[in-house]
Amino acid sequence: MVDLSRRRLFTRKAARNDTLRLPWLNAPERFIDQCTQCEECLKACDTQIIVKGDGGFPQVDFSIDECTFCYQCASACPEPLFAAEQNEPWQAKAVINDQCLAQQNVECRSCGEMCDSMAIQFRLEVGRVAQPKLETNQCNGCGACVSVCPTSSINVSNHVA
C-alpha cells in the first residue's frame, strides 16, 4: 500500500512558488500545502485556462485564453482556499518584454486591441512605429493580451519589475 502523504512531500517540492496559480486565493504562499489537486477548478473554468502545472497543482495558462474573473474556480473548490468574490482577484500584472514587435519597429497592436481595461496604450514616437505603454495600475491581470501576442512577448506575473 502506498502512503500518499509521503508521496505528496515530493510533489510539493516539485511545484514552483513563482507560478501564477488562481485568482482570489486567501494565502497564495500556502496554496501548495492546502490544495488537494481534486481538479474541480479545472472543470469549472469557463475559458479552460486552468491547467495541471508543476507537481500536478492547478495554475493559469494565459497562452490558451484570458481570465474572465467569473469566480467559478473558487465556487467549485471544496477547500477553503479562496477569498470572497468582492475582493480583488490578485496582484498579477502584465509585463511586456523586448521581443515585442513594436519595439522591433514592426507595427502590431494586438495586445492593446484585446485590453478591455485599456492598460496597454500605444504612444507615437518619431521615426518608429507606435510603442506600447503599459499602465500597471490599470492592468487587472486578466491575460487577454497574452494569447494574441504573435511573439509571446507578454507575461502576466505577480512579480512586476
Polypeptide structure, described:
The protein is of the alpha+beta class and 161 residues long. The chain has two domains: 19-88, 2-Layer Sandwich (Alpha-Beta Plaits), CATH 3.30.70; 93-157, Alpha-Beta Plaits (2-Layer Sandwich). It has six helices and six strands; from the N terminus they run H-H-H-E-E-H-E-H-E-E-H-E. Strands 1-2 form a two-stranded antiparallel ribbon. The longest helix has 11 residues, at 4-14. The chain is elongated and about 55 Å long. The model is unreliable at 11-16 (pLDDT under 50). Its cofactor is [4Fe-4S] cluster. This is Ferredoxin-type protein NapF. [4Fe-4S] cluster 2 binds at residues 67, 70, 73, 77.
Rg estimate, integer Å = 18 Å
- Strand residue content: 15-25%
Strand order of the largest sheet: 1-2
Q: What is the terminal separation in angstroms? A: 47 Å
What percent of the residues sit in helical stretches (DSSP H or I)?
A: 10-25%
Along the chain, the helix and strand elements come as HHHEEHEHEEHE
The name CATH uses for the topology of the largest domain is Alpha-Beta Plaits
Name given to the CATH architecture of the largest domain? 2-Layer Sandwich
Number of helices in the DSSP assignment: 6
Q: Briefly, what CATH class of the largest domain? A: Alpha Beta
